[in-house]
Amino acid sequence: MAATETGSAGWSGPRPGGGSTVSVVVAIAIVVADMIGVGVFTSLGFQVKDIPGGFSILLLWTVGGLVALCGVFSYSELGAMFPRSSGEYNFLGRAFHPAFGFVAGWVSATVGFAAPVALAAMAFGEYGKSVFPGAPPLALAIGVVWLVSLVQLTGVRHSSTFQLIATILKVALIVAFLVAGFAIAVPQPVSFAPSASDFSHIVSAPFAISLVFVMYSFSGWNAATYIIGEVREPERNVPRAMLAGTLIVMVLYVALNAVFLHTAPVDRLAGQLDVARVSGSYIFGEFGGRIVGAMICFGLISSISAMMWIGPRVMMTMGEDIPILRSFARRSTGGAPVYAILFQLAVANLMLLTNSFEAVLEFIQFALLFCSFFTVLGVIKLRITHPDLPRPYRAWGYPVTPLVFLLVTGFMMYYLLTEKPLRALLGGLIMLSGLLIYAVFRKRTGQGPVAASAGRE
């Protein structure tokens, strides 16, 4: 691709997307909040049906964290080279072609964040019944999305404070649950030491398939790349935020699964969706379910906040490049992309009211994996085609770590193609629609959006 499309290694002046006001601590909070949703509290019940060993389960979650770290190293290299908000929209446009970046941005800006926001909000509504008995789940869901959006509209400073407090509360509640689980509950006869049977579990098909769902629970490790333009010293702090955030979540995930197995019998956990509630009933007794429900409910607030922060930044950056979307690039005096936030709020509310978010989430998974796969592949491509580009951060363990991530992500895409071909096809159609829109834009303006941006830097 042309050098103008690849762009410079950094920005000598102010970066597009606003000033650098987000500290590394807040960036870590965004990564942690975006990663920890309901997945870790629900998936163990299906894993222990085929992987009953304690060591195998903890290894499964450890492997998931290590694969996520492999992705962190590659995204960190690209983020330090091209420190501009919007994640894959920026990276794919520079590593491959502006059309590819536009497709990734199209998926993220339209449904890629709005659908997870709606899902987390609906989960908040369901768990919120533990805190607000009798309240309609849909009303709670819509209420929390509006509340978080209003905070985001006040500007980056207030958003940072809210995100940090909400994430600290989330982690504190999880740690309190862990301490109570190991200190109060009657231990179950489960061993976390490796045994001869663990090897057969680790090399089995259920282990590989379970890893797919574990990786979904780890999704969000790249959250900081969507707000690079707002992070102080992004060449240093974005890699730090993703690394620290992913390590924190990996430790919490392994510890949570250990406490689930430590506190509740395996036969009571097997096949259960709400394993956290089952574990909570053994720890806290009759009110265990309510306590766990409240913990998850409060934790989801920080998750929704993180996605309502980073999602609109994709549309904002696209607005900086594409004249017809220019209004989405407008920011308030506090630095908030007002119209981009309102757009994501509207889409999330529409999904909640039509109960369509679960269907959307199912068919965008393939598209999101596809974009992540090629983003990491872009690190290898740029190492070969542009070896002299300045790299303030170089991917640790290259080329092994990118190849590990590509192998696992490739398996996940293969799984979706073979097990859920219709959903994968629908995801492909969303990307194709983005490509067609890009072609129309290019025909009218004579150049691609990311290329246009690169020419100004």
Features:
disordered N terminus, Amino acid/polyamine transporter I, globular, mainly alpha, 457 residues, disordered C terminus
Q: In words, what does this structure look like?
A:
This protein is an all-alpha fold. The protein has a single domain (21-448), classed as Up-down Bundle (Amino acid/polyamine transporter I). 73% of the residues lie in helices and 0% in strands. The chain contains 21 helices and no strands. It is globular, with a radius of gyration of 22 Å. 54% of the residues are buried. Residues 1-18 and 451-457 have low confidence and may be disordered.
Structure described in brief:
With 457 residues, the protein is mainly alpha-helical.
